[in-house]
Amino acid sequence: MTVLVTGAAGFLGRRVVVELLRGGHRTVCLVRSARRSLELDSCISPALKSSARFVTGDLIDRDSCRRMLDGCESVVHLAARLAGSPSVLFLSTVVGTRALVDAAVDHGTRRFVLISTLGVYGTGGLPAHSVVDEACAIDPLPHLRDPYTYSKIEQERVAWVAGAERGLPLVVVRPGFVFGPGRTMFTGRVGVRVGPVTVRMGGGARIVPCTYVDNCASAIAAAVAAPDADGRAFNVVDDHLPTARDMFRAYRQSVGPVSAVTVPQWAIPAVAGAYEWCCRRSHGQFPPVVTRYRSASQWKPLRFSNERAKRVLGWRPSVGFADAVDRTLAALPLRPGTRTDGRA
Amino acid sequence: MRQNLRIALVGCGQIADAHLLQLRRIAAARVVAVCDRYRDVARQAAARFDVPAVFDDLDAMLAATQPDIVHVTTPPQTHLAIAASCLDAGANVYVEKPFARDLREAQELVARAESTGRLVCLGLDQLFDPAWQQCRAMVARGELGELIHVDVVQSYDLAGSFGSIVTADPGHWVHDLPGGLLHNAAPHALARLIDFIDDDAPRIAAFRQPRADHAAYATELRATIVGARITGSMLFSTAIRPAQRRARLLGAQGSLEVDLESRTITKYAAASFPGALAKVELPFRSTLQAAHHFGANLRRLGAAQLHYFAGMHALFERFHDAVRGTAPMPVTHQHALRVTALMDRVLAECRVSETTSATHTRGLDLEQASA
Q1: Interface mutation vs chain A, best among B25, B40, B73, B162, most A CBs within 10 Å
Q2: Number of domains in chain B
Q3: Judgement on whether residues B175 and B249 belong to the same structural domain of the protein
Q4: Do B89 and B147 lie in a common domain?
Q5: Does one domain contain both B271 and B143?
Q6: Which of A60, A87, A151 has its CB closest to that of B12?
Q7: Same domain, B90 and B147
Q8: Could you tell me what percentage of chain B is helix, strand and coil, using 3-state DSSP and rounding each to the nearest 5?
């Protein structure tokens, strides 16, 4: 099968491309520039290079989307902006998806795999320690979430509407925090960074839904061809998930000493409420990065299920957390003063 | 009681958030609609700022909502056409900087406003920053004596939220402006200069160049402006750190430095003691000023007076009063044209200096070849 992969040269995209090629698929890789093509090309083994083609294009432009779909049977839509203002996130993520979805429907795409995020669930309304699986509802008040999550919820909505109304054969993959070589080990699930200080939200026993990048890539590749996947969403988190304490320790190992203060789990609602009050009273002098709604969505103790992905996609996260952290740390450049014998 | 104004906004990009946030702080103004060519982008702005109506068609928005004022926060290449439609529909218009692509378009826009009997306000919000307003008042009161020179420094972070997008995208609209990045980012700094240099046709020398790691387009601008009474210089740079928006005002009887980032004004003091003692006295006086700034800004923080876009808020309120007919225009049509004309002239002088430099280099090459 020939698969269009958007965001193909990104942190996750390049692993997905390799995984698809290893699985016998051909890939059409959408990249932003010639430099990104070279970066992606260097990740592909010589034996598989002939099965990968690179294209550049503009996801916001429908004609461009039609051209990039030429010759492709399926789509893995990974391209999305991770940070920026809401308008920028919406333009690249939501508007881009709308154009690609329209083109895919017209093109008769056999499967459209949208890479979303586990953050789309309305976890703020769930009781503590609930299990987050695919039956949970999408957040009904997405504009109250952080801009990235808001854009991903709207992106999903655009795709689901196309699935329901225009027959797009949609599969949605919802990974947790994706980490691995080349990306920070810090996740907002642990806390927030304020200048040089990291504010850890909660004592550290809370489970962090995450997935090692190679594990995630194999789940996405499985979603391209798995039968019985159409019209369904799949949580992608690893087995034996780490705690916030484990994640913070790994982050500290990756960057060195970190100045941190901890807000106890029981105090999070009060602290969030107080900060929100300051934001409101100051009419926006402080940005509303922490609100009661966001903190309930982000830092509530919950459990996360990957059962459906394992059952329907036949996926197994083969790299465990300890091994994944070792691989991530091994890929870091040595910091000045670090001893090479490991006894820093 | 002040008349409640109906406000609409077209172009829901990054700067629109600042507009909507500041408009929300004004009790006598209500944002009734937002419009963007991409409805998804307009929808997110409406949802976050409780705006009741969303449009992706300007004419439909104007017809349906009949706003008193439309904020135009689209790319500058579209300002003339969009603002003209709004003026024709009976709305007053607030236009983000740069006003238009060039002076010709700016003149057309002002003429359209005057023929329709409506107002158009150029968004020179940094001139209404509380610190800048305070330093203008000090100059007006004669605290510096006769003003001799204004020295403006403005940095721009190419890795910032907007700069990074412009840098990553060679097709970004900023690159299509006649002066590219400089055209979009330098108007605030130029406006600070001509806030004091009021000559119609000052002498100008200007130079632009790319940073070594951004060879594709000019990111650095230096300009010298010589008026009959006051001279000025401007340094616009994407390379300097930390981020700064400063100006030094040098007068015959005193000087000061205004820092918009820290919202402080520091007076340069004359020493009372002679010789070596002066070198102790002056740092002591600086310490006293710094302590005063710290205390004042702590109080302002508590009183919610340290909004980054405080100048925008003040300008909006004054423009609203002008629309109501109860106050003069805060940025006159003439002022908007002067800033646009100055930008055009600075860019023209940059081109002249580049041509001269190229001719000179060619001459040197020929001399070397003949030697």
Answers
A1: B40
A2: 2
A3: yes
A4: no
A5: yes
A6: A87
A7: no
A8: 50, 20, 35
Chain B interface mutation, best of A157, A285, A294, highest count of B Cβ atoms under 10 Å: A285
Most distant CA atoms of chain B, gap in Å: 82
| B105 and B173 belong to one structural domain | no
pLDDT at A83 over 60: yes
Do residue B137 and residue B115 come from a single domain?
A: no
Record: contact B304-A84, CB cut-off 8 A: no
Q: Which residue has the tokens 């709004």?
A: B86
Residue B177: which domain range?
127-308
- The CATH number linked to B200 is 3.30.360.10
Q: Which of chain B's residues have a Cβ under 8 Å away from the Cβ of A60?
A: 38
Task: Please check whether residues B144 and B276 belong to one and the same domain.
Answer: yes
Is B28 part of any domain?
yes
Q: Which residue of A has its CA nearest to B46?
A: A143
Given a cut of 60, whether residue A341 has pLDDT beyond it is no
Are B137 and B279 in the same domain? yes
For residue A339, pLDDT over 70 is answered with no
Chain A: residue whose CA lies nearest to B23: A283
Report d(CA B258, CA B195) in Å as an integer: 14
Report ipTM (2 d.p.): 0.90
Residue of A nearest to B45 (CA): A87
Cβ contact A90–B44 (<8 Å): yes
Distance CA B323, CA B5 (A): 9
Would the pLDDT of A179 be above 90?
yes
* CA neighbor of B246 nearest in space, from B234, B231, B254: B234
**Using the beta-carbon criterion (under 8 Å), do B14 and A284 form an inter-chain contact?**
no
Whole-number average pLDDT of chain B: 94
The CA distance from B174 to B115, in Å, is: 30
Q: Are A209 and A174 in contact (CB under 8 A)?
A: no
Q: Tokens 């970190």 correspond to what residue?
A: A258
**Out of A32, A95, A143, whose CB is closest to B41?**
A95
Spell out, as residue ranges, where chain B has pLDDT lower than 50.
Answer: none
* Backbone region of residue B156 per phi and psi (left: phi > 0; alpha: psi in -120 to 50; beta: other values): beta
Note if the pTM is more than 0.80.
yes
Give residues with Cβ within 8 angstroms of A180, minimum separation 6.
A11, A15, A212, A213, A214, A324, A327, A328
- B364 found inside a domain: no
- Domain annotation covers residue B258: yes
pLDDT in tens, A299-336: 999 999 999 999 999 999 999 999 999 999 998 875 54
Q: Which of the listed residues B71, B89, B122 is the one where a domain comes to its end? A: B122
Q: Which domains does chain A have, with CATH numbers?
A: 2-183+208-241+302-330 (3.40.50.720)
Pick from B25, B38, B40: which is nearest to A283 by CB? B25
For the beta carbon of residue A286, count every other beta carbon within 10 angstroms: 18
